[in-house]
Amino acid sequence: MISKRNIRAVSTAILIMGAISGFSQSIPSLKDAFKNDFGIGTALNNSQIEERDPAMTAFIVSQFNMATPENVMKSALIHPKWDTYDFVVPDKLVEFGKKHNIKINGHTLIWHSQLPSFIRGIRSKDSIQTFFNDHIKTVASRYKDNIFSWDVVNEALNEDGTLRKTVFLDYLGEGYIAEAFRLTQQAAPNVELYYNDYNNEQPAKRAGCIELIKKVQASGARIDGVGIQGHWHVGKVPFKDIEESIMQYAALGLKVMFTELDIEVLPRNFQGADVNQRMGSDPTLNPYTAGLPDEVQQQLAADYEALFKLFLKHKDKVTRVTFWGVNDGNSWLNGWPVRGRTNYPLLFDRNNQPKPAFYKVIGLKK
Ligand code: XIL
Fold it and tell me: Does the annotation mark 201 as catalytic?
């Protein structure tokens, strides 16, 4: 007969094994909890795409059903030289998705950041146009049958809603945005096409975003959805603007997605996610190296809970919520806008253990 003591010993051993591997079987699954509401995604880095850590792979597969490459499909990486493409890791990502039943969102075709260095040497409209056409055709057609969607254009707007000055706007004029959608649709007719930006829940930028979307629609090109990146700050999440935005974007006939969700807990003197904007290093900007104070932890949990409540309220319009990283240790916010900080913006800690925010979010489905 198995005694109670034996059962206790075995379950303790399982818990310890779970803790050592960083993966506990007893963690509820986000993707399962929200399976009738919206997709749950994550950004994946190279190590995760290449499955270097089996416990990490198992964890990703247990929690997420959608994924966006954090960097490997950006033009600097996938198109490093004028006539050279590097599809090695992007192809692995597509395999990863197929193998684990995870839908891939391509990120991103046309963006002013992380461009290949050769772009800087180009001084003619013809050459920019050739790069633009070849890049979209080559990359979009390669994955036309095995990714779910593309962030066709990323971050084309300024904070006041006007068009951002980029190499594409400079040389090709404002029509480049609709043209990017037209070319992607031509190369990948069955893939969903999105516009993606940060702060596009803020009224002025949102107005510009709506205008941009209407122009794409008026051009006859297809646009299926809009991504609100969702790089927000603890205690300052703009819930009202977010809800307004969900309504207004959905009224255009688009799917609404939260595509790069994280909630910053460290000091910052600006909002948004312009990757070219940085702050100098200073120890006062990195206050929580020994752990997150309980008060901040609770505020983070309350913010995530209220956000997911809002997403659920509008689940007929919100199709996906993607976190920008699997756990706090993977987050780009440890290195941006200040290098070398200890940040805590996600639902899982550095060992893939759920934080109080995770239990608040999962609790909404109980
Ligand atoms: C970030 C990545 O997370 C970093 O690893 C990289 O160094 C810079 O870009 N908006 C976007 C994402 O659309 O592609 C950015 O990702 C974060 C802001």
Answer: no
